Amino acid sequence: MFIRHERSIKEFIVNYPIVSTLVIIHLVLWVIIDFLSLPIGVLMEAWGVGSNLLVAEGQYWRFITPVFLHGDFMHALFNSFSLVLFGPALEQMVGKSKFLFGYFGAGIIGNIGTFIFGPENYWHLGASGAIFGLFGIYIFMAMNRKYLIDQGSAQMIRVILIFGLIMTIFRSGINVYAHVFGFIGGFLLAPIVLKNARIYSPWGNSRRRTYHYDDSEVQFDPNRWRKKRWIPEKVRKNWLLLVIGILAAIGLLSRFF
Fold first, then answer.
1. Which residues pair with 12 in a beta bridge?
2. What is the pLDDT along the chain (257 residues), one digit of tens a residue?
3. Which residues, including other chains, have CB under 8 Å from residue 255's CB and lie 6 or more apart?
4. Measured between alpha carbons, how far is 143 from 148 in angstroms, rounded to an integer?
């Protein structure tokens, strides 16, 4: 479920428009706010960052706007890659509307939890609560809708969730409230999100492929399997996971240097 089979970025965008749009928004906002530091970016951050104090004064839109904003490039990149890894399968299985409902519903619940249990002067931003909400939906799926998820994918979700919770506890600068309540929110919303969900297929959204053959050409090379492959099969199949792992490691190391 979590290994990408798309042949190009264009195919990915066509198959998963919601996930693609969210990732583009993350990166565009980072460019405007942090990279270019445009005046409108400063205004957008001031208007959208999560603030328990300002929410208490009636600025309730701050329950949702922090989901779009990130503190730095690694923060935006890591959340975007997490969304690219875990979002497509769910978007295909439940459809655009329910995916948006689950994603933003969990993010809002995470921010409400931050408001209720966090300090009054607490400031926060990031899509991590919404992404932990996706984990909550998958965990519910693994527990109560086992026919929708294969054993390997369920095990991967459990391992990554445990790793994420450990990082939540031991890393500084993490909105623990958003992570925990985002996960709980995703789990609670899962019965609604997964109603009438379809079993994931890696080719489910792909257009029908048409192949053209020329009878004058040899269609099978008997020595094709003897050709030396410089990249191991496991590496080629799991390249996206490796890239995410490398980026995550760089992000962690950047905290110490």
1. none
2. 888 888 889 999 999 999 999 999 999 999 999 999 999 999 999 999 999 999 999 999 999 999 999 989 999 999 999 999 999 999 999 999 999 999 999 999 999 999 999 999 999 999 999 999 999 999 999 999 999 999 999 999 999 999 998 988 888 889 999 999 999 999 999 999 999 999 998 876 554 444 343 444 444 444 544 444 555 655 555 555 555 555 555 444 444 44
3. 171
4. 10
The answer to whether 157 and 94 are in contact (CB under 8 A) is no
Q: Residue 38: which domain range?
A: 9-203
Q: What is the DSSP letter of 212?
A: -
The residues carrying an active-site annotation are 128, 179
According to DSSP H, which parts of the chain are helical?
9-15, 17-30, 39-48, 52-56, 73-94, 96-117, 128-144, 151-170, 176-193, 233-237, 239-254
Residue 213 lies in a domain: no
Domains: count for the chain: 1
**Rg of the chain taking only CA atoms, in angstroms:** 20
130 lies in a domain? yes
Smallest CA-to-CA distance from 167 within 75, 71, 252 is with 252
Say what the pTM is.
0.80
123: left (phi over 0), alpha (psi -120 to 50) or beta: beta
| CATH number of the domain residue 48 falls in | 1.20.1540.10
**d(Cα 21, Cα 207) in Å, to the nearest integer?**
20
Report how far residue 169's alpha carbon sits from residue 232's, in angstroms, rounded to the nearest whole number.
36
194, 145 Cβ separation under 8 angstroms? yes
